[in-house]
SAV-6107-like HEPN domain-containing protein (Nakamurella alba), 129 residues
Amino acid sequence: MSGPVPQATRDLLADAGRGLGRAVAAQDVAERYAAAHLAALRAAAAVLSTRAQPGRGRRASAWDLLARLAPELGEWAAFFAAGSAKRQAAEAGISRLISAREADDMLRQAAEFVELIEQKVGRAASRSA
């Protein structure tokens, strides 16, 4: 990421941070899993907001776009893409598919990912200042 960091990117990262806070506070494992996954999705959107080019083409998930536009984040994209179906189940109230360990693991990975993206954006902001 280079150049000034758009406000939309900063807003998405702030949303990601708030989402992590909700995940930490959640008592329900499905809620924790979903909030953590959504926080990671907001961080991915922050990256995409700086790299995506408008245009028409086939529809792709944020994780597919992230892997394509930020290949250095491809492993992260694959990890979170694999958790998307469970997040959707959690949001639908189907919590039996998610264990406490899975929710805790998702929270840990999401926190690490959000921090990584915040660092990438911070480096870009300091280079553009």
In short: The mean pLDDT is 89. Helices lie at 7-25, 29-51, 62-69, 74-82, 84-91, 100-128. The chain has six helices and no strands.
